[in-house]
Amino acid sequence: MSTTSTRKELSHDRIVDVASRAIRRAGYKGVGVADIMKEAGLTHGGFYAHFASRDALLVEAMQRAGRDSQAALSDAVARRMAKGSSRFAALVWAYLHDSHLDRPEQGCVVAALGSEMTRQDDAVRDEARQRVKALVALVSEAMPAGTEASQAAVIAATLVGALQLARTLGGQAGRALLAQTREALIQRHDTPA
User: Which of 70, 115, 166, 168 could form a disulfide with 177 if both were Cys (CB 3.0 to 4.6 A apart)?
Assistant: First the structure.
């Protein structure tokens, strides 16, 4: 691998990283190419050396955001399970953690962009569908034995909706909604150890 190739790959990765946080923080419309390139420490003119279009950047940014948030969520789940929580309870606690109220750029891309996903071009919408399917699969894997598989989508929708509403409410009201949702989901769906 040449130095130029390595530099280009590092720059590309930096752009995608910045964009993945920006879309979760400011939405699709909040991702301007010039701003992303500036935050990545690159010139606006270099954008098209990395991406065919803004939508191509959005697709990669959603993929990165999905991987990053899933990795963080998996780590948080593992830490809670190590302390005795069931996988399902740990997932609910990790996803609906109070820290996700104030830092959407570090959280779930589906919760951050859910209301905007349907208004995007086909390539971006297709990737959005993949992010939703990945979230439902993650929930499905954590479901207690004997729970109907169809419940995974309902629970994923509840998690996303609760986080979106809690962010809208903010402050104590938002934290209270997260706590109430955690309690309700765990009480209804978790299997006692």
Answer: 166
Burial tier of 166 (Cβ tally within 10 Å: 0-12, 13-18, 19+): buried
Q: For residue range 111-167, what is the model confidence (pLDDT) as tens digits?
A: 888 888 888 888 888 988 999 999 999 999 999 887 787 899 999 999 999 999 999
Question: What is d(CA 145, CA 189) in angstroms, rounded to the nearest whole number?
Answer: 10
Q: How many CB atoms within 10 Å of residue 191?
A: 12
Residues 131 and 66: their CA atoms lie apart, in Å, by 6
Other beta carbons within 10 Å of 119: 10
Q: What is the DSSP string of 37-92?
A: HHHTT--GGGGGGT-SSHHHHHHHHHHHHHHHHHHHHHHHHHHHHHTT--HHHHHH
Hey, CA dihedral for 8, 9, 10, 13, is it positive or negative?
A: positive
Structural contact between residues 147 and 163, judged by C-beta atoms closer than 8 angstroms: no
Q: What domains, with CATH codes, occur in the chain?
A: 3-189 (1.10.357.10)
Supply the pTM of this predicted model. Answer: 0.86
Alpha-carbon distance 126 to 118, whole Å? 10
User: Can you give the pLDDT at residue 192?
Assistant: 57
Tell me how far apart the alpha carbons of residues 97 and 140 are, in angstroms, rounded to a whole number: 19
